[in-house]
């Protein structure tokens, strides 16, 4: 009897072991490749990275061993977040030259050498690009190096040269008002030299980007000019950089240091957010950024026009909740705010808009701002910033002048629009162009600023302390009540100096002095 019980026990143990072996044998094997290194010495081997994406290769390192020349219609490496590049790419100071023309019928939404990247690292790479893209996608991400980045991505010792032309394939719809077939423009695009769109925590260091961007396609219809894109975010380094959680107020989630940007932008859209380095940057620590070249200021220029909104800055379109130190900009801005009387525009030598607790310290802008008044209700511009909201600008200098296009039929009429509060013409045609900032409000401060900027108002055009709702990228932000302050030691050499009007008939600039009859 006792022996029988022992036999049953042994049988039970054996059966349990068998079940365990079956379970282990059926369990999925770990497919992660671990720490491997793969050399890239040809275009075919570069293309083969498309078979080495996703989490299985998140510890892999790809080493470029020679210069590459790509002259085929290119498909970016990484076509989705799930199928993204998650490895390290070492360029070893080699150069990849790529020329590609992508038509709308390919139905791509990412354009660049790499498409989607995820926790990726790029080091020591030189990239020459010539991209001409057309898209039907509602949202497109365009970057010379990478298109869309998520989570922690790092870029170090990267050089970008070349040009990107991006256009929208036109779609049509029947207007409910006129019954006429009209072109539709509901597309967004994020365009950058290093990356188009980055969400998470990104690091950019030792970057040089000499980039030409062209987005200018338009369509004439019964309602006038319609641009191909609803919104464009563009910068020599990145179009849009943000954290995963926009409610996160930590200012050092993204890191930017030792940047040289040489932009040549021509951008037209319904709304434009353009900066020489970043179109939009949020939660960042930024140090040592140079845009343009002080010895050769004509090398770079930013020319933008937004039919509804224009935000353009020498370094940043929108600087939000960030610390920016040692920022130097040497270029001209050519901004054409257009649209109807309900539009809002902001542009400045360093940043179009400084917002949400941002600090700009030790900045310098030297250049001219070419602009117009146009049929608009709110247009704020300054030698340093268009608008400063709940933020601080300190220890900074600006020099140059506003050059105003003659957009109406005479100098006398034009002058009345900019300099007289009792203008006999439409009262909404008011330009708030000042030597430092067009508008300052909320808990903001100007401290130790030296301005030699020729503008109608020497310091600012408008102070506001009321609560205001601002729409940035579709997210409504309520500004807090505060009292802007201007430090008494601040030096403004040219308060109420002059704006300049370009007289085409005489081909020269005519000064427009305040209070002139």
Describe this structure as you would to a colleague.
By secondary structure, this protein is mostly beta strands. It has a six-stranded parallel barrel with strand order 18-20-23-27-24-21. Strands 10-11 form a two-stranded antiparallel ribbon. The longest helix is centred in the N-terminal third of the chain and has 25 residues, at 2-26. Mean pLDDT is 81; it is low at 406-429, 494-498 and 512-517.
What topology does this entry show?
Blueprint lengths: L1 H25 L10 E4 L2 H5 L13 E4 L3 E3 L17 E15 L7 E2 L2 E5 L2 E15 L3 E5 L2 E23 L2 E4 L6 E4 L3 E5 L2 E21 L2 E4 L2 E4 L3 E5 L2 E5 L11 E22 L2 E5 L1 E9 L8 E13 L2 E5 L2 E8 L1 E4 L8 E5 L2 E5 L3 E13 L6 E5 L2 E5 L2 E13 L6 H9 L12 E3 L2 E5 L3 E10 L5 E5 L3 E5 L2 E5 L5 E2 L4 E2 L6 E5 L4 E5 L5
Parallel strand pairs: 1-2, 2-4, 3-4, 4-7, 5-8, 6-9, 7-9, 8-12, 9-13, 12-16, 13-17, 13-18, 16-18, 17-19, 18-20, 18-21, 19-22, 20-23, 21-24, 21-25, 22-26, 23-27, 24-27, 25-28, 26-29, 27-30, 28-31, 29-32, 30-33, 30-39, 32-34, 33-37, 33-38
Antiparallel strand pairs: 10-11, 14-15, 35-36, 39-40
């Amino acid at each position: 009897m006792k022996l029988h019980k022992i036999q049953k026990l042994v049988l039970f143990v054996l059966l349990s072991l068998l079940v365990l072996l079956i379970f282990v044998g059926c369990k999925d094997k770990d497919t992660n490749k671990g720490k491997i290194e793969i050399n890239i010495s040809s275009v075919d081997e570069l293309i083969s990275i498309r078979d080495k994406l996703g989490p299985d290769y998140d510890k892999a390192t790809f080493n470029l061993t020679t210069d590459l020349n790509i002259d085929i219609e290119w498909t970016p490496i990484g076509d989705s977040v799930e199928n993204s590049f998650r490895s390290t790419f070492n360029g070893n100071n080699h150069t990849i030259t790529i020329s590609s023309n992508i038509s709308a019928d390919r139905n791509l939404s990412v354009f660049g050498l790499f498409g989607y990247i995820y926790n990726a690292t790029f080091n020591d790479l030189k990239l020459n690009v010539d991209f001409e893209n057309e898209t039907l996608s509602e949202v497109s991400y365009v970057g010379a190096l990478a298109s869309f980045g998520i989570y922690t991505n790092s870029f170090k010792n990267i050089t970008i040269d070349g040009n990107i032309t991006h256009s929208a394939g036109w779609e049509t719809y029947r207007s409910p008002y006129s019954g006429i077939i009209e072109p539709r423009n509901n597309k967004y695009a994020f365009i950058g030299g290093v990356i188009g769109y980055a969400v998470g925590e990104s690091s950019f260091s030792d970057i040089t980007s000499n980039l030409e961007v062209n987005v200018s396609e338009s369509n004439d219809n019964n309602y006038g000019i319609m641009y191909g894109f609803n919104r464009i975010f563009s910068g020599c380094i990145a179009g849009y950089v943000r954290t995963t959680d926009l409610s996160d107020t930590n200012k050092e989630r993204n890191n930017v240091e030792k940047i040289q940007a040489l932009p040549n932008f021509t951008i037209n859209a319904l709304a434009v957010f353009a900066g020489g380095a970043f179109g939009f940057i949020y939660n960042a620590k930024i140090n040592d950024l140079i845009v343009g070249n002080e010895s050769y200021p004509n090398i770079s220029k930013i020319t933008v026009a937004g039919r509804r909104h224009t935000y353009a800055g020498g370094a940043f379109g929108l600087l939000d909740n960030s610390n920016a130190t040692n920022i130097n900009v040497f270029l001209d801005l050519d901004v054409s705010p257009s649209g109807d009387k309900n539009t809002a525009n902001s542009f400045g030598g360093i940043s179009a808009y400084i917002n949400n607790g941002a600090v700009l310290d030790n900045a310098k802008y030297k250049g001219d701002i070419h602009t117009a008044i146009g049929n608009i209700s709110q247009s704020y511009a300054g030698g340093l910033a268009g608008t400063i909201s709940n933020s601080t600008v300190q220890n900074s200098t600006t020099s140059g002048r506003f050059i105003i296009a003659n957009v109406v039929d005479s100098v006398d009429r034009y002058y009345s629009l900019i300099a007289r509060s009792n203008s006999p013409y439409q009262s909404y045609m008011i330009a708030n162009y000042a030597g430092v900032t067009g508008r300052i409000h909320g808990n903001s401060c100007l401290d130790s600023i030296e301005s030699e900027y020729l503008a109608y108002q020497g310091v600012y055009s408008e102070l506001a302390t009321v609560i205001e709702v601002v729409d940035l990228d579709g997210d409504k932000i309520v500004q807090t009540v505060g009292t802007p302050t201007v430090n008494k030691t601040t030096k403004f050499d040219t308060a109420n100096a002059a704006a300049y009007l370009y007289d085409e008939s005489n081909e020269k600039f005519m000064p427009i002095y305040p209070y002139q009859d």
